[in-house]
Amino acid sequence: MGAHHTTVGIIGGGPAGLLLARLLHRSGIDCAVLESRDRGYVEQRQRAGILEQGTADVLRACGAGERLDREGLVHDGIELRYDRRAHRLDLPALTGGRRVTVYAQTEIVKDLIALQLDSGPPLLFGARALAVTGADTASPRIHYRHEGREHTLSCDYVVGCDGFHGITRSAVPERERRTYERRYPYSWLGVLADAPPSSDELIYAHSARGFALFSMRSPAVSRLYLQVPNGTDPADWPDDRIWDELEARGAVDGPWQLVRGPITAKSVVPMRSSVTEPMRHGRILLAGDAAHIVPPTGAKGLNLAVADVTVLARALEHLHRTGSAELLDAYSATCLRRVWRAEHFSYFMTTTLHAPEGRPSFETRLQRSQLDRIATSRHAAAELAENYAGMPLR
Ligand code: RFL
Ligand code: PHB
User: pTM for this one?
Assistant: First the structure.
């Protein structure tokens, strides 16, 4: 990597790390990104699809909005299905004008990598951080392996953007951090299909057979999810079984037809909530999935990662420009307010929409009552819509 010192050493080249590097670079702050995987892997990893308005605005403001504006699909609503009925939530009408955009995480990552490789700060693929030392010194160090050799990068600040399974979190002494966690008794089987979406908007379907989500990547590609038991092997789900199950769970009175097509990818993701506090220890900071994860039902994970690094870039820029650490000192508390709101919303969406194991229970009845409430009360609908569309970033 040439220089062995940088102002901000960033571990992880997912959306959080790449966007942070972009924001710092634009503020004239020197930084470097170490990413353990290769470029192709990072660009193909199938994940999020829904961007809050604030997220899309940050991407535009830092010059990564061109393809987003051309190819992103702006959505004004989502549909909830239960008891064979469809109920639409009009997002702008319920939130004072906020909407969401369907633009895949894979595309954001490609756009940010292209910007960074074209005159941005150093971005090293195949560079696995092994440990961070010197948390309590003025110059923390990242020890990493690249092309079979070990290197050390000394930094003024180290930011862990290394996701849920990263190593930065463990550089904070155990007595200084606390993790709050919840696991759910189900997972999602997610598929990508060369089939046009069966609806113009996303459908979140509650059914006695389990939850189903009908999303999309483009006018030609569907992204679909089914609630499955933990430990499910995707090999037990041949394509026809997936389509039949999606059709059964999405069934509604009135016209609706599920369009089938070749399935091109299949994977199982467990549902988990987790928050590690605080998000800073001395000169080590955590951002995105490295600090917190949500079950995907609320579509919040990527949006939280973007919010964290936006707050962090502003704080580091303030420090660089004025010498004041005031914003940096507030970083963890500022982010955690938004994080806990998103944790609650994601938990609410998850527990309201997924079928509990076994026969219909007390919980199932509560879910139906809650869904009726959303369908009939503007207040209840607005509460969901405001959380889904997201709070403005400032
Ligand atoms: P990432 O994307 O996990 O990136 C972390 C990066 O760090 C690298 N890394 C290391 N690099 C160097 N040294 C080490 N020791 C390293 N250890 C790890 C990894 O290779 C990786 O490149 O975290 P980041 O940047 O914080 O971004 C978070 C988002 O990826 C995540 O929150 C979202 O994908 C969550 N999510 C969704 N979020 C939304 O906002 N809207 C959605 O619609 C949405 N849908 C989803 C989702 C996540 C899903 N899965 C697979 C969990 C749907 C699914 C199915
Ligand atoms: C997706 O398109 O991948 C997606 C959309 C909405 C969610 C989760 C995932 O809540």
Answer: 0.96
| Residue located nearest, by CA, to atom 7 of ligand 2 | 299
**pLDDT on residue 1:** 47
Count up the domains in the chain and report the number. Answer: 1
Q: Rounded distance, CA 138 to CA 141, Å? A: 10
Q: Using the mean position of ligand 1's atoms as its centre, give its distance from the Cα of residue 282 in Å.
A: 24
Domain interval for residue 33 = 2-52+67-73+104-181+273-349
Whether ligand 1 lies within 6 angstroms of the CB of 15 is answered as yes
On whether residue 9 sits in a domain, the answer given is yes
Which DSSP state fits 296?
Answer: G
Nearest CA to ligand 1 atom 3: 163
Q: Which helix (H) or strand (E) holds 365?
A: helix 362-376
Is 82 inside any structural domain?
Answer: no
Q: Which ligand is nearest to the CA of 216?
A: 2
Share of the chain above pLDDT 90, in %: 94
* CA-closest residue to ligand 1 atom 22: 14
Residue 278 in any domain: the answer is: yes
Q: pLDDT confidence of 357, banded at 50, 70, 90?
A: confident
- Closest ligand 2 atom to Cα of 297: 10
Whether 53 and 194 have beta carbons less than 8 Å apart is answered as no
Q: Residue 114 maps to which CATH number?
A: 3.50.50.60
pLDDT (tens digit per residue) in 313-340? 999 999 999 999 999 999 999 999 999 9
Give the confidence band of 2 by pLDDT, cuts at 50, 70, 90: very low
Using the predicted structure, report yes or no on whether residue 192 has a pLDDT greater than 70.
yes
DSSP secondary structure of 176-202? G-EEEEEEEEEEEEEEEESS--SSSSE
The answer to the question of residue 90 being in a domain is no
Minimum mean pLDDT among 213-217, 337-341, 357-361: which range? 357-361
* 8 Å CB contact between 348 and 371: no
